Amino acid sequence: MKKVRTAIIPVAGRGTRLMPLTKTTPKELLPVYDRPVIELIVQEAFDAGIEKIILVISTEKESIRTHFSDNPHISFVYQNEPLGDGHAIAQAIPELETDEPVLILFGDELIDNEGGENAAAQLLKTFEKTNLSVIGLQSVPRAQVSRYGIVKLGTQEEVEIIQEKPSLEAAFSTLAIVGKYILTPDVLALLHETEAHADGEIRLSGTFQKMLQEDRPISACVIDGERFDTGSFDGLLAAGNHFAR
Length: 245
Prior knowledge:
Elements: E1 6-10, E2 31-32, E3 35-36, H1 37-47, E4 52-57, H2 62-67, E5 74-78, H3 85-92, E6 102-105, E7 109-112, H4 119-130, E8 134-139, E9 149-153, E10 159-164, E11 175-183, H5 185-190, H6 204-213, E12 219-222, E13 226-229, H7 233-244
């Protein structure tokens, strides 16, 4: 398996949870204290050793392209319709080298592991051990499990079951998927075969479910650090206060 040198960051979403702020400013450019969210995520990738970043934007988010216009290591592709995170990632596949694994970082997920390896570096370390696709996880309060994809781990720290937003009573664990992954070339190819959900969106979670149905192994990485969902008002405020301190 080739080394992971490229990261894809999907940032074409509409940011509806942060309306009305996102009427004029992409959520990824909203400040976390003194820097936009997207700068922190891009820096996470570069600090982990990533050499090239592909940002998946929409035509309404040209300001993100302008923000990074002087960085030759960042390129852009477009998702012209909001058809899900799996569809967004697929738009960047033609920009990759043949058989290239990639790091995926969602544009509203910050994890600060102060004094230790950042989240992307932790994922890469797991990939180097297993040569398998990796799903990033963190434990969440049990009362919040219905907001997330919840994972049950097998004996080899591999993903055994993924539950989509289970009820409190049905959840196998509190290990939640947190929007940070490494995808191998075979998984990227599966994106084109993943069926859309009832709302018409093609989601990465559907690809993972297909893999599990076909007994294809997926590694898990329980990420150390404090997590902030900057796609919500509370998460954005908490992240700003954290980085200000």
